Amino acid sequence: MVKPIVNLDGVTFDDVEEDGLYTSRRARFSDAIGARNLGYNLTVLPPAKAQCPFHSHHGEEEMFLILEGEGELRFGDQRHPIRRHDVIACPPGGADVAHQIINTGTETMRYLAVSTRVPVDACEYPDSGKISIVAGNGSATRLWKMFRAETTVDYYDREKK
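The chain above was modelled as a monomer; its predicted structure follows.
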């Protein structure tokens, strides 16, 4: 039986990004504690960095709890200062709820992320005009595709006639 507890001081960072602005370390531990409907991760974000591009989910809802540091939340067309103990809600939807956390402080930022685990999610990236489709979660991800939004085809494109 899986132990339903993890201490954040002992998690393993299994998702490390080092790509210019997008530099972070994430410890994803949902499966390790037996989570079924929620995804959990601890993110460590150096100063002047973001974990991911500005985006919105159409199926998944996210919540972030800032544990250490300060920064900025881009949310829709607004920007909000964020700091230790702030709780952030990112509901599903379009560009009006697109979001991104940026460490604008001088110290490392740490935050806990919690999200619903949906079988299929579509994600929009308003800054770059991309769309992603994901089916499955964590180690059970079966499909992950990224497209440019302007690459649209007719419903019957490439179908036998």
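The CA atoms of residues 50 and 102 lie 5 Å apart.
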